[in-house]
Design goal:
The complex is a heterotrimer of chains A (266), B (719) and C (240). Chain A has 266 residues and is α/β, with parallel strands linked by helices. Chain A is built from eleven helices and ten strands. Chain B is mostly helical. Chain B folds into three domains: 291 residues, ABC transporter involved in vitamin B12 uptake, BtuC (Orthogonal Bundle), CATH 1.10.3470; 287 residues, ABC transporter involved in vitamin B12 uptake, BtuC, CATH 1.10.3470; 60 residues, no CATH class. Chain B is built from 28 helices and ten strands. In chain B, strands 1-4 form a two-stranded antiparallel ribbon. Chain B has a two-stranded antiparallel sheet with strand order 2-3. In chain B, strands 5-10 form a two-stranded antiparallel sheet. The chains are: A alpha/beta (266), B mainly alpha (719), C alpha/beta (240). Chains in contact: A-B, A-C, B-C. Chains A and B meet through helix 3, helix 4 and helix 5 of A and helix 19, helix 20 and helix 21 of B.
């Protein structure tokens, strides 16, 4: 899989936003991810779908560094990051949103976003500054925070404790915090789980609005949503990629239909 | 020679058996209920005392009866403890159990002294198991053999119950997956009391075994609990096998391999210096095992159920402005306090009590910085207090009188040690972090007692005399720590070189008020505390503090924002260690002497109490906690409250009831422990949360205007 | 409510914390039936089972067993009534042997039903017979699933809540699980089955509920469902 023999394709791979090469993850004797190789281009919107237990979240964990791969490699922006811890990958421009809303409940909305912005500007201040200069005196950071709060529509509730936000606003904050880490690629793990259809639509609009430039990888159960949003779709089943292609191609793939409705012939 | 070896082995096995009995109960209680039971050592001590109560009237023969009855009584006490104190805390963070059971330690240990008195008593044994018997060409202690056999039978019995009975099956299954046990229709909660009671009974058996070997003293529990914990961690939390094998292994290692000098064996010296490391070896072992294998030797993967967050959401009724006003007012009041000394206040109040409160306030503040803001519960914070006191004491005794130099050296040492300890400890989390820090602190406690001996005529003497220019005579009288006596009589000079002041004998006259040297010292300490408070507050309001607060809320999330939590926690640990060291320095200056008590683990427990009493995760909470802690101690020791209560009862004609009120003046830990247990049970966010709890009952104008967050506690964890 | 109803879910809203998963879910299971819940993952099937079993309590609405309200019973109490959850993760005790896993179940569960004994279970599930002394952690996925079902029966279940019993199993083993479930049902065990594999549901179930986004969107027999290609596609397939 490393080389295709086609020089044009090789060149494209090396400039790809994200590339995995023969990723394998085993838990004991159980193989959760089996030889997964995929390439996400700059600006692409890719969805990963598959039945329960197909290994979608595990794949996300391998890409973002929450789990170590048993075999294979992950390249981000042309750089190998397989052995890098999560924070290093985030620093390189990978963003991750979590399946269950994962904001810092005890902090205010503003503090949540500021913590994320602050992470991207660490080079602009030294250790002593980081220890002793109050957070409200970093103008550049605070302006960026205000901008993001505006973008995700939370400026009015900026001083509220995150715990007090309604669920929909929490998801907005989560997206805002990811946006604030200034990512080039964002991994979204079921951003609309547990939402009403209206909330789902709002969230989708927000993602499209604020993350139009970035490459996005989405794990999602809502098939309509996936069909509507994606440039391309990867289908996982039992840890393996069984299909990859445009939404139309996937919708008409009999093997995918079978994996979804039921794998066993009876 | 064989005789000596066998005797040493017997000694090791006896102690190992005690450890095994003690540790296995602890371990199973942890496995099934996730409870870290610090009171286990006191239950162990209670076993010995109830045995005494049985044996005293009956004589030696009563010993056999005691072996049966005392564990039953202690087991019953264990059931009651579980039901009324441990049970309400199951849905909270397991660290609350550490706090709760530490409170129980204070209560039980003082109750024991109240009932049986502080003097050591010996437990008489039956004729049959006294003296020695002859075998293998030597004579051996009958008691040792009896106890090894008896202990083995009890251990095997417990093992059989765990493996072959319905009860044991449920307990083992519960240790693996409580939820599934419930899914099968078994009320696992009903078994918790029994497990706790059985663990307590095992501890009691161990207590009797050890009491029969020597004497029954009130300190028995605290002497054995720490090694027992080390063994549980070594063997793997929750593993019965690990606890038994670890217990016997450590016992044999300590008593049979390290302690004896093997004088009888010519040409057979294992490592000549080994006995000098006697008390330390298990801590070194534990730290080593945890660093290399964080789950212990036999521990399996287990998920720490986090439950409710340790810290309540920080919300206050006061606006920033009101708070500032209150802060300035308090500092102003504290600054004026010495002026009232000798007139409104007893001289000793400011000169000793207030000085102590301020120093401990600083210590509590330093602990809160990592516990309340980074979620790291250190059980070994006394390490830094000890380092500060001893380094300052050593410098002042051996090098210079300059307090500034001593403090600077101490801070440098404290910071360096904090970095190393932090580096090794922060890779493990939760309970393991608590245990590894405890290990380091105990290691240090042993070191300060032993190191002078090493230098004067131990292995360090040998090493140092090999250095050119060092001769034996220089080392024989050298005092680094003063061993178990400590360091006395160093004088303190507040300055560097020949510019500065000696406080001794100084008095500043301000009209009717005289500021003595102690009062001037009070001002120095007050300014250090206020300065430290502002530095820490500044740090918490800066980007670094923002990351710490984020880590407290959700470490994974912070990592996925691009921060390395380990680095931040380590830095926070170093900062905390520096301020704790500073508190230790101030303590040495104010006394002025240093004794091994400065490094005792009980101090770590007391400072945790202060932090929780006042309120975790707020900077003023620990200061309030220190004030209340010592204030309470003072009131109880003063006896006025109880005297008035007795007077009142006598006045209304209940002199009979009045006479039953014991003399609490010396038993302040009992009262304090009770207050603390009530706090953990009913007011886990500490005194600072009282205004918020009262909020619904306040008139409208006192309510904060901003919208208050939902009442429910913040839950930790991402799924 | 029909006279034969064993399990009833009536207008239940439920979820985790602030997140509502189920919205106004109602379903009914009669004695001796196999009823399936199908739907995409995230639809709310497991949440429904957890609400019945008592891990979750409904925010509104109620759950009944043989006419009694069991909405607020905990999992142990529910299991004692004979309603037993076989969870998706199977949750075999890894450090207990197969026999011990079953013995434990014999100590719990319903007191009044004549439950299967440990030896009967070992005889019934032939592949467990050879492995009685092996630890739970050494079993294959299929063996774990068999043991999980056997354990619920030994605990005296007369209503089995099966959560994705065929997940991650090879086709041959899926067939075995289907046979076992049918066999149990023939002997009077009522089954509420959650499945993603529609073939399994069509094969086994008397009636099916399709769950989508936390609500019941379709209900009917397997024959009807087989012929509703449009429904199958819309709620379970990937065709738009």
């Amino acid at each position: 899989m490393a080389t295709t023999g086609d020089p044009a394709a090789d060149a494209r791979e090396s400039t790809a936003m994200l590339r995995t090469e023969g990723l394998v993850k085993r838990f004991g004797s159980f193989t959760a991810i089996d030889e997964v190789s995929l390439t996400v281009e700059r600006g692409e919107f890719r969805s990963i779908i598959g039945p329960n237990g197909a290994g979608k979240t595990t794949l996300f964990n391998l890409i973002s560094g929450a789990l170590d791969a048993t075999e294979g490699a992950v390249y981000f922006n042309g750089e190998e990051v397989t052995d890098r811890p999560p924070e290093k990958r985030i620093q390189l421009g990978m963003g991750r949103s979590f399946q269950i809303s994962n904001v810092l409940d005890g902090l205010s909305v503003r503090e949540n976003v500021r913590l994320a912005v602050q992470a991207t500007r660490r080079d602009s201040y030294g250790l002593l500054e980081s220890l002793f200069r109050p957070t409200d005196r970093y103008d550049e950071i605070n302006e960026a925070v205000d901008r993001i709060l505006e973008q995700v529509g939370l400026a009015a509730v900026a001083e509220e404790t995150a715990a007090a936000l309604p669920y929909g606003d929490k998801r907005r904050l989560e997206i805002g915090a990811v946006l604030a880490t200034d990512p080039e690629l964002v991994l979204f793990d079921e951003p609309t789980a547990g939402m009403s259809p209206e909330q789902t639509q709002e969230t989708v609009d927000l993602i499209r609005d604020v993350l139009a430039e970035q490459s996005l990888v989405l794990v999602e159960h809502d098939i309509e949503l996936v069909m509507e949003l994606s440039d391309s779709i990867t289908v996982l089943n039992r840890g393996e990629v069984i299909a990859e292609g445009s939404p139309e191609a996937i919708a008409n793939d009999p093997e995918v239909q079978d994996a979804y409705i039921g794998g066993a012939e009876l | 020679m064989v005789e000596a070896l066998v005797q040493q082995l017997l000694d090791g096995l006896t102690v190992g058996m005690v450890y095994a009995l003690l540790a296995s109960g602890l371990s199973v209680i942890f496995g099934v209920m996730n409870v870290i039971n610090f009171a286990h050592g006191e239950l162990f001590g209670l076993g010995a005392y109830f045995a005494l109560a049985v044996v005293s009237p009956l004589g030696g023969v009563g010993f056999y009866l005691a072996l049966l009855v005392a564990p039953l009584i202690v087991g019953g006490i264990g059931v009651l403890i579980e039901r009324f104190t441990v049970r309400p805390l199951y849905d909270r963070n397991p660290l609350y159990h550490i706090l709760l059971t530490f409170g129980l330690v204070l209560i039980i240990s003082d109750l024991v002294i109240l009932v049986w008195g502080p003097e050591p008593t010996s437990l008489s044994r039956p004729e049959f198991i006294t003296g020695t018997f002859d075998a293998l060409g030597g004579s051996f202690s009958r008691y040792a053999v009896f106890m090894i056999v008896f202990g083995s039978i009890v251990t095997a019995g417990v093992w059989a119950v765990l493996n072959y009975t319905r009860y044991g099956l449920i307990v083992r299954a519960g240790a693996q997956d409580r939820r599934m046990v419930r899914n099968l229709g078994i009320d696992i909660d009903q078994y918790y009391s029994l497990v706790f009671g059985a663990g307590a009974a095992l501890a009691a058996v161990a207590g009797i075994v050890i009491a029969g070997r020597g004497q029954v003293t009130p300190g028995l529990g605290s002497a054995f609990i720490i090694p027992a914990f080390v063994i549980v961690v070594l063997g793997g939390l929750g593993s019965f096998k690990g606890a038994v094998l670890g217990g016997i292994g450590v016992g044999v290692l300590q008593e049979s391999v390290i302690k004896p000098d093997f004088p009888a064996i010519d040409g057979f010296t294992l490592v000549p210096a080994l006995p000098q490391f006697d008390g330390m070896i298990i801590f070194i072992l534990m730290i080593g095992v945890l660093v290399l294998r964080p789950r212990g030797l036999f521990g399996s993967e287990f998920n720490e159920e986090s439950g409710q967050l340790l810290v309540g959401a920080d919300r206050s009724l006061l606006t920033d402005r009101q708070r500032q006003f209150l802060g300035v007012g308090t500092v102003g009041l504290l600054a004026l306090l010495p002026l009232a000394s000798g007139s409104l206040l007893e001289p000793s109040t400011v000169e000793f009590l207030m000085i102590r409160i301020l120093i401990w306030g600083l210590f509590a503040l330093s602990l809160d910085f990592i516990m309340g803001y980074a979620g790291l519960v250190s059980l070994g914070h006394v390490l830094f207090w000890g380092l500060g006191s001893y380094t300052a004491g050593t410098v002042l005794t051996n090098a210079t009188e300059s307090v500034l130099v001593a403090a600077a050296v101490a801070l440098a040492v404290g910071t360096a040690v904090a970095y190393v300890v932090g580096y090794l400890s922060i890779r493990v989390s939760g309970v393991y972090f608590a245990m590894i820090t405890l290990g380091f602190a105990e290691l240090y406690h042993n070191l300060v007692i032993d190191i002078d001996g090493w230098i004067q005529d131990g292995w360090l003497h040998t090493v140092l005399t090999a250095v050119p220019g060092v001769d034996s005579a220089m080392l024989v009288d050298f005092e680094l720590t003063g061993g178990s006596e400590g360091l006395f009589g160093f004088s303190t000079f507040y300055g560097v070189g020949d510019i500065g002041v000696h406080l001794d004998g100084i008095a500043v006259y301000l009209g009717p008020v005289t500021l003595t040297d102690r009062l001037l010292l009070y001002y120095i300490i007050l300014s250090v505390l206020v300065g430290s408070f502002f530095i820490l507050r500044r740090i918490l309001n800066a980007p670094f503090g923002a990351v710490l607060k984020g880590i407290r809320e959700n470490e994974t999330r912070v990592q996925f924002l691009g921060y390395d939590p380990t680095v931040y926690k380590r830095r926070a640990f170093v900062i905390s260690g520096m301020f704790a060291t500073l508190a230790g320095v101030l303590s040495a200056l104010s006394n002025p002497f240093v004794s091994p008590g400065a490094a005792e683990w009980l101090k770590s427990g007391e400072v945790i109490i202060m932090v929780v009493l006042g309120g975790l995760g707020t900077l003023f909470g620990p200061l309030i906690g220190a004030f209340v802690f010592f204030g309470l101690e003072e009131i109880i020791q003063d006896g006025v409250v109880f005297d008035s209560l007795r007077g009142l009862l006598t006045l209304v004609g209940l002199s009979g009831v009045a006479d039953t009120i014991p003399d609490f003046t010396r038993r302040w830990r009992l009262v304090l422990g009770t207050v603390f247990v009530l706090f953990v049970l009913f007011l886990p966010s500490g005194l600072v949360s009282v205004p918020a709890k009262l909020e619904p009952y306040l008139p409208d104008r006192f309510r904060p205007t901003r919208a208050t967050p939902a009442e429910q506690p913040t839950a930790r964890g991402d799924d | 409510m029909s006279a034969d109803e064993v399990l009833g879910v009536e207008n239940v809203d439920a979820g985790y914390g602030e997140t509502t998963i189920l919205r106004d879910v109602s379903l009914s299971v009669e004695a001796g039936e196999i009823v399936s819940m199908v739907g995409r993952n995230g639809a709310g099937k497991t949440t429904t089972l957890r609400t019945i079993n008592g891990i979750l309590s409904p925010d509104s609405g109620r759950v009944t067993h043989r006419g009694d309200d069991i909405s607020n019973l905990d999992p142990a109490a529910t299991a004692k009534r004979g309603v037993s959850l076989v969870p998706e993760e199977r949750q075999i005790f890894p450090e207990l042997t197969v026999r011990e896993n079953l013995q434990l179940a014999a100590h719990g569960g319903a007191e009044d039903t004549d439950s299967m004994s440990v030896d009967e279970a070992i005889g019934q599930f032939s592949n467990l017979g050879e492995r009685t002394d092996n630890h739970g952690s050494s079993l294959s996925g299929g063996e774990q699933q068999m043991l999980a079902i056997a354990r619920a029966l030994v605990a005296g279940a007369d209503v089995l809540l099966l959560d994705e019993p065929t997940e991650g199993l090879a086709p041959q083993i899926v067939d075995d699980v289907v046979d076992i479930v049918r066999d149990l049902n023939d002997r009077g065990i009522t089954v509420l089955l959650v499945e993603q594999n529609v073939h399994v549901c069509l094969e086994l179930a008397d009636r099916n509920y399709i769950i989508d986004q936390g609500t019941v969107v379709w209900e009917g027999s397997s024959e009807r469902l087989r012929n509703e290609q449009e429904i199958l596609d819309r709620y379970l397939g990937v065709t738009v």
